[in-house]
Amino acid sequence: MKLPELETLCAIIKRAAEQELLPRFADVNRTLKGDGSIVTVADQAIQDRLESELKQRWPAYGLLGEEMTEAEQTACLARPGEGLWIVDPLDGTSNFAAGIPFYSVSVALMIDGEVVLGVVYDPARDECFSAVKGGSACLNGQPIKGSTAPASLRRCIATVDFKRLPTGLVLKLMHSPPYSSQRSFGSVALDWCWTAAGRFHVYLHGRQKIWDYAAGQLILERMGGHSCGLDGSPVFSASGEPRSALAALDRDIFQQWRDWLLLS
């Protein structure tokens, strides 16, 4: 099976972001979804743009987008056809609308219930992370050079989204954190990629959807990274159900992080 060329896909995503997102950065009308999250005209504009260009270039694949209705998303996952693009057109909408330059475009391709290709593009830094099943993880077309992790979890930098975690775990992390310091920047897809690049040493999120993590998890996996849910099960679910995730690039650090969390 010949997959879409990464170079072509990255060019499509970068061009769409440059034309649909950058001119609207911090200057867009916004509304609230039913779950209270922000949606802007930029979210819909770039999703429409990507849907049009991906279908024109690769007509055999369907598309699941974050800005579709829940019924449309359920139908896409139930009938993926020959393959399904999984698109988060603007991951980090709250940041984007507020003028905080930490947001991304995430595109993954799922075939037979498995993610086989993923791209996460950061327009603010012009960084394009990508990976293909069986291949290397890349940054701007070159293999990612992951940094060396500290020897101990106690010296690690963590990225943790507290608001979606169980209250008891949040309190324990606040009062007895097992790491050196913690960040939370607001783009799930970039969190995965920055963990893959060694910018974060450990990662934790309590509830993310398939378009949030599909591309980023593949990128971490192809870097040799490790992840699982808070219950110890695999993060990825082709059903689309929200998933928790803990992750690290280094195996020993991952084991320390997992042991601490699963015993909490």
Question: How do you describe this structure in short?
Answer:
With 264 residues, this protein is an alpha+beta fold. Helix content is 34%, strand content 27%.
Write a structural description.
The chain has two domains: 138 residues, Fructose-1,6-Bisphosphatase, subunit A, domain 1 (Fructose-1,6-Bisphosphatase, Chain A, domain 1, 2-Layer Sandwich); 110 residues, 3-Layer(aba) Sandwich (D-Maltodextrin-Binding Protein, domain 2). The protein has eight helices and 14 strands. It has a seven-stranded mixed beta sheet with strand order 3-4-5-6-7-8-9, with helices on both faces. Strand 10, helix 5 and strand 11 form a beta-alpha-beta unit. The chain starts with 5 loop residues before the first helix and ends with a helix.
Number of helical segments with 4 or more residues: 8
Q: Record the strand order, biggest sheet.
A: 3-4-5-6-7-8-9
| String of helices and strands | HEEHEHEHEEEEEEHEHEHEEH
What percentage of residues falls in helices of 4 or more residues?
A: 25-40%
